[in-house]
Design a protein that fits this description.
- There is one protein chain.
- By secondary structure, the chain is an alpha/beta fold.
- The protein has a single domain, classed as TIM Barrel (Alpha-Beta Barrel).
- It has helices at 13-22, 34-42, 54-57, 69-85, 105-119, 133-141, 157-160, 170-186, 198-207, 228-231, 249-265, and strands at 26-30, 47-50, 91-95, 123-125, 146-151, 190-194, 212-215, 223-226, 281-283, 298-300.
- The chain has an eight-stranded parallel beta barrel with strand order 1-2-3-4-5-6-7-8, surrounded by seven helices. A two-stranded antiparallel sheet has the order 9-10.
- Helix 5 links the parallel strand 3 and strand 4 (123-125).
- The protein binds 3-methyl-2-oxobutanoic acid.
- 3-methyl-2-oxobutanoic acid binds next to loops.
């Protein structure tokens, strides 16, 4: 008999649309492995994103650009297993990484299908606006739901000249609104709005029938997303303005490991309760290949 919890029906793109219509906020967070997936799903998130932010959060790069499609598949499959083992309902989205969809529509469709087939995601996310209309249309036509991502798009960091707030003047704000409409028209089922003014995010949200998920876009959106490492306070060296640290796990982890190191050095760990004992067992001396060593026997379990 299986010891795994019974599977529940996963949250679909239609359910997310109903949440917007009903005014129920959508809670989305990133996860990059099975343990994190199980924890965030048990905590009640609606959407789990295997973001290419793993390039910075996990791999130690200073941008998302080096992340490959194979790595996204690898992490997505781990997260899929974590959600399944927790019998979680959370909707699972995977990022199409830099270079997997920009060069052509056929590449993009193949990449999206690979992430679904091998990574087990229900949908893919890609960065870009109206220019990606055809790419999105074709991925959706192949049966893969697409979440858009506009505003600050980290894969275009060099074009943007850094990780800076987007859409601050009328012309740029107008372009973001146009991009948002183009994504919805192309068939996106939701769109991430990253680092845009609160006022613009409110207008975009009110004009779209599909849910908007904000990060650094204020409260007038249909849902919020944060990078898990940020909300857990794992890295306290830099916290963007839009992040709230809901815990201080970085210092907590350092404290726990420092206590372990201290006990190993002081020989206070492991204590007796961490070891295994046996009844008194007599060991017969075994022949030793090395003729320089004398055969040794002993009694296990006897007092030393
Ligand atoms: O890669 C990522 O984690 C993201 C979110 C920040 C939206 O794209």
């Amino acid at each position: 008999m299986s010891t795994q919890p019974a599977p529940k029906k996963r949250i679909t793109i239609h359910e997310l649309r109903r949440m917007k219509e009903a005014g129920d906020p959508i809670a989305m967070v990133t996860a990059y492995d099975a343990t994190a997936a199980r924890l965030v799903a048990t905590a009640g998130v609606d959407v789990v994103l295997v973001g290419d932010s793993l390039g910075m959060a996990v791999q130690g790069h200073d941008s998302t650009l080096p992340v490959t499609l194979d790595q996204m598949v690898y992490h997505s499959a781990m997260v899929r297993r974590g959600l399944d083992r927790a019998a979680a309902r959370a909707h699972l989205v995977g990022d199409l990484p830099f270079g997997s969809y920009q060069a052509g529509v056929d590449d993009a469709v193949r990449a999206a299908m690979k992430l679904v087939a091998e990574g087990g995601v229900q949908a893919v996310k890609l960065e870009g606006g109206a220019d990606y209309h055809e790419v999105i249309r074709r991925i959706v036509r192949a049966g893969v739901p697409v979440m858009g991502h506009i505003g600050l798009t980290p894969q275009s960091v060099h074009k943007m000249g850094g990780y800076v707030v987007q859409g601050k003047d009328s012309e740029k704000a107008q372009q973001i609104l146009k991009d948002a409409r183009a994504l919805a028209a192309a068939g996106c089922y939701a769109v991430v709005l990253e680092c845009i003014p609160v006022e613009l995010a409110r207008i975009v949200t009110s004009q779209l029938a599909i849910p908007t998920i904000g990060i650094g876009a204020g409260p007038h959106v249909d849902g919020q997303v944060l990078v898990l490492n940020d909300l857990l306070g794992l890295d306290t060296s830099f916290t963007p303005k839009f992040v709230k640290r809901f815990a201080e796990l970085g210092p907590a982890v350092e404290g726990a490991v420092a206590a372990y190191v201290g006990e190993v050095k002081a020989r206070t760990f492991p204590a007796d309760e961490h070891g295994f004992h046996s009844a008194s067992v007599r060991l017969v001396p075994a022949p030793i290949e090395d003729d320089h060593e004398e055969p040794q026997g002993g009694v296990m379990g006897a007092p030393i």
